[in-house]
Design goal:
With 572 residues, this protein is α+β, with helices and mostly antiparallel strands. It is built from twelve helices and 30 strands. Strands 19, 20, 23, 24, 26, 27 and 30 form a seven-stranded mixed sheet that branches. A four-stranded antiparallel sheet has the order 2-1-3-4. One of its GO terms (molecular function) is calcium-dependent phospholipid binding.
Length: 572
């Protein structure tokens, strides 16, 4: 397996499976562990060889065929399982052995995870002949994805305030390998009480103990002071394993140790204990409830069948310039794509693999339409009002180019109609099976800010996200306001439930050296990076759990001879 570098596009060998003797239908055991990035196009190449000796030199073995895909293509397939035909394509003959070698091979390698192949040619691949099929599957590694939810109360804590009782809160610390402690959670402050009941809270198990169930967890109890000099009340220690016992005599704490069967646990202040011989405790803390569940990830939903519906909306306002002139942002050069097409392709090539039918609605806004010259802010690029979907990214580009020849650029720059258009579709299916992503590519200052903010606030409760890419040299201050990274967007006093907008200016990704491939890869990475978390946040807010992955097809390949330990690594 080979992976391709994003910058230099060179293939690098990532790993090789074991050799399985004497079979045309190998099912490889060895897996490849790779980092997955939703926002990047991770190219993979699989080369298959028939091993003739123990030599690690690929040129000494028979090349059977190869397959190309992206990691996203595998992950986005049904059940994260992809079948690809093995092909020979361009090849060259090795000068020493005379055997065919893949022409793209450069001595370094590439790649990811293969499960099995079926029916490759036994004596070496031949151009034009069927070379078999490779079946690829991806599975997310478990990395302590459990989330613990718990609640504590305390009784008879020390009184620390002169004119009141205490304002207690808890601070949790994870122990480190070197004996130090790292803070991992603070509860809220309970005002003026010595018997607080704190709210239930959730924390990833890896944050609490890094997956080590017996690692010490220290909990300190403080009395809150306005000036920040909080008064120390006491502390105790426990562990995840102890907490997991739930509400019981073992989770009333005595200075860090689960308490004896008598059930009288204590929070200890070491300084007070040293100074006062009759000191007993500074109160008790009790675990009221404890539950743990596995945290769902983006890949869980994708593997469970969630489809990402991609819609693009393109700015056709007059500020883009006359498309027939080279100074226009819509100018169609015979030598290179314009900024709109580059941005669309960069994002679309990544996201297309997460939609099984590859049919993408494409809209325009800000143009006068034939034959009557009416201004529209929500017109289909393909001219079909009933079905604005285009087949694949190439279909969108074709429809975009046709629209440039038929409509008149006009204005103003209104976003609300296209946001509302996609929101209607998203609202129709809210069971977790679909999630919508709207890409808006624009050159100008937004004209309907109030209406757009209202549309986004309403859309934030729906399964959708919005990407805005600003092309040209205009000031995009208003777009930054829509991107609620710093301040959550609001409309008419109503706060958006989630941050669903990501904005970037295209000019920040223009490579001065002319390397559009690298710069567009960076663009796609940055605008898509927030989509997985936004999808998960919606599902979590709605209480939607991932569906079980679909069962793999049950077709039995021909029986192969029993496997024997590999004699040598197999290069692919």
């Amino acid at each position: 397996m080979y992976t391709q570098g994003m910058e230099n596009k060179q293939w690098r060998e990532f790993g090789r499976t074991e050799v399985i003797d004497n079979t045309l239908n190998p099912d490889f055991v060895r897996k490849f562990i790779v980092d997955y990035f939703f926002e990047e196009k991770q190219n993979l190449r699989f080369d298959l060889y028939d091993v003739d000796s123990k030599s690690p030199d690929l040129s000494k073995h028979d090349f059977l065929g190869q397959a190309f895909c992206t990691l996203g293509e595998i992950v986005g397939s049904s059940g994260s399982r992809l079948e690809k035909p093995l092909t020979i394509g361009a090849f060259s003959l090795n000068s020493r052995t005379g055997k065919p070698m893949p022409a793209v091979s450069n001595g370094s390698g590439l790649w990811m995870e293969s499960l099995r192949t079926t029916g490759p040619e036994a004596s070496g691949g031949v151009p034009g002949k069927k070379c078999g099929t490779i079946i690829l599957a991806a599975e997310e590694l478990s990395n302590c994805r459990d989330v613990a939810t718990m609640q504590f109360c305390a009784n008879k804590l020390d009184k620390k305030d002169f004119f009141g009782k205490s304002d207690p809160f808890l601070v949790f610390y994870r122990s480190n390998e070197d004996g130090t402690f790292t803070i991992c959670h603070k509860t809220e402050v309970m005002k003026n009480t010595l018997n607080p009941v704190w709210q239930t809270f959730s924390i990833p198990v890896r944050a609490l103990c890094n997956g080590d169930y017996d690692r010490t967890i220290k909990v300190e109890v403080y009395d809150w002071d306005r000036d920040g000099s909080h008064d120390f009340i006491g502390e105790f220690t426990t562990s995840y394993r102890e907490l997991a016992r739930g509400q019981s005599q073992f989770n009333i704490y005595e200075g860090g140790v689960s308490v004896h069967p008598a059930g009288q646990g204590q929070v200890i202040n070491p300084k007070k204990k040293m100074k006062k011989k009759k000191y007993v405790n500074s109160g008790t803390v009790t675990l009221l409830s404890f539950a743990v569940e596995s945290e769902c990830t983006f890949l869980d939903y994708i593997k469970g069948g969630t489809q990402i519906n991609f819609t693009v909306a393109i700015d056709f306002t007059a500020s883009n310039g006359n498309p027939s002139q080279s100074t226009s942002l819509h100018y169609m050069s015979p030598y290179q794509l314009n900024a709109y097409a580059l941005a669309l392709t960069a994002v679309g090539e990544i996201i297309q693999h997460y939609d099984s039918d590859k049919m993408f609605p494409a809209l325009g806004f800000g143009a006068k339409l034939p034959p009557d010259g009416r201004v529209s802010h929500e017109f289909p690029l393909n001219g079909n009002q009933e079905n604005p979907s285009c087949c694949g990214i190439d279909g969108i580009l074709d429809a975009y180019h046709r629209s440039l020849r038929t409509v008149q650029l006009y204005g103003p720059t209104n976003f609300a109609p296209v946001v509302t258009h996609v929101a209607r579709s998203a609202a129709a299916v809210q069971d977790g099976s679909q999630y919508s992503v709207l890409l808006i590519i624009t050159d100008g200052v937004i004209s309907d800010m109030a209406q757009t903010k209202e549309a986004i606030v309403n859309a934030a409760k729906l399964p959708m996200s919005i990407i805005i890419i600003g092309v040209g040299q205009a000031e995009f201050d208003a777009m930054v306001e829509l991107d609620g990274d710093d301040v959550r967007i609001s409309s008419r006093g109503k706060l958006a439930e989630r941050d669903i907008v990501q904005f970037v200016p295209f000019r920040d990704y223009v490579d001065r050296t002319g390397n559009h491939v690298l710069s567009m890869a960076r663009l796609a990475r940055d605008v898509l990076a927030e989509i997985p978390d936004q999808l998960v946040s919606y599902m979590k807010a709605q209480g939607i759990r991932p569906r079980p992955p679909p069962a793999a097809p049950t077709h039995s390949p021909p029986k192969s001879p029993a496997r024997t330990p590999p004699e040598s690594p197999l290069h692919i």
